[in-house]
Design a protein that fits this description.
two-stranded antiparallel ribbon, alpha+beta, 2 domains
Length: 222
């Protein structure tokens, strides 16, 4: 029989640890098994969870704005009062292994959400890259893109909705066969409706999209 807790190296005659022990902690541990330090290090520092969000009264969808919590340090995208954040912002939600799967206001790129869904961390995540600034360099953070809530009236929030919450600016999916004249609103609405490819009929460039109830390429009702 071989050694019980490792692999035998016939060349050196030593016992090597199992391959699983060489994996980074986030690949070999469940969220509930992580230490406090490990859990905290999963945060990539993007700052998107701290954006002010709106809820659609009809669909219940959560929509993010470019307005951030008053506690955010705009230069680092970090909370300036993290240890006592709940004291200053009572409705600030504390993430736990038990609630991460139910929080629909977290971006799709969030490490906690990715791991809870069985997905790998992005290559720009600081734990993967080894560089705490990689999240900013990759354009995945809110750095230089937000304003504090103290400078925006509640009535103006609807005018500050963003389309880069789950990615970065400029990542709106392109539509094969179409030029660059399609409005951003047009592209986003079609994509949300599940339309990912152009299908013009009888020379009418918007005919294939009318059933989706989308706007036309100029942003007007189709």
């Amino acid at each position: 029989m071989g050694p019980p807790n490792g692999l035998y190296n016939g060349v050196s005659g030593c016992i090597q640890p199992p391959m699983s022990s060489k994996l980074p902690f986030w690949r070999r541990k469940a969220l509930s098994e992580m230490t406090r330090d490990e859990w905290e290090s999963l945060c990539d520092g993007c700052g998107k969870c701290c954006l002010i969000k709106l809820e659609d009264e009809d669909s219940g969808d959560i929509i993010a704005t470019d307005v951030t919590c008053k506690l955010m340090d705009l230069g680092t995208c970090q909370c300036s009062r993290y240890p006592e954040r709940s004291v200053h912002v009572p409705d600030c939600v504390t993430l736990t292994p038990d609630n991460i799967g139910t929080l629909n206001f977290m971006p799709a790129t969030c490490a906690y959400r990715l791991l809870a869904e069985g997905q790998p961390l992005a290559d720009w995540h600081p734990l993967v890259s080894g560089d705490p600034n990689s999240v900013h360099d990759a354009g995945m953070s809110v750095l230089d893109r937000v304003v504090p809530e103290t400078e925006v009236e509640d009535a103006d929030l609807e005018d500050r909705v963003i389309d880069w919450f789950d990615g970065k600016p400029g990542e709106t999916p392109a539509f094969p066969g179409w030029g660059d004249d399609a409005s951003e609103e047009y592209v986003i609405e079609l994509f949300d409706a599940g339309v990912t490819e152009a299908d013009p009929e009888d020379g009418d460039p918007d005919a294939g999209y009318r059933e989706a109830g989308a706007v036309d390429r100029n942003g007007d009702a189709a």
